[in-house]
């Protein structure tokens, strides 16, 4: 997703903070991490290495 699309979706949803496709991927990964096993999340995000998926989840694990 392009950043201008992310910003439009956020604006339409009433989100006033800056949103980029990078932020959207992190948010998506963090939300899904609570619901699916990490190897499934890795496949959904199309990461070659589980370590890359773990980078996306750094905030999730810091909170739990």
Automatic annotation (TrEMBL):
Transmembrane segments: none annotated. Gene3D superfamilies: Intergrase catalytic core. Residues 4-62 form the Tyr recombinase domain. GO terms for molecular function: DNA binding. Keywords: DNA recombination. One of its GO terms (biological process) is DNA recombination. InterPro entries: DNA_brk_join_enz, Integrase-like_cat_sf, Integrase_catalytic. It comes from the Bacteria. This is Tyrosine-type recombinase/integrase. It comes from Aureispira anguillae.
């Amino acid at each position: 997703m392009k950043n201008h699309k992310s910003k439009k979706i956020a604006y339409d949803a009433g989100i006033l903070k800056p949103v980029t496709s990078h932020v959207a991927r992190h948010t998506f990964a963090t939300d899904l991490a609570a619901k699916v096993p990490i190897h499934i999340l890795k496949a959904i995000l199309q990461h070659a290495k589980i370590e890359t998926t773990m980078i996306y989840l750094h905030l999730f694990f810091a909170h739990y």
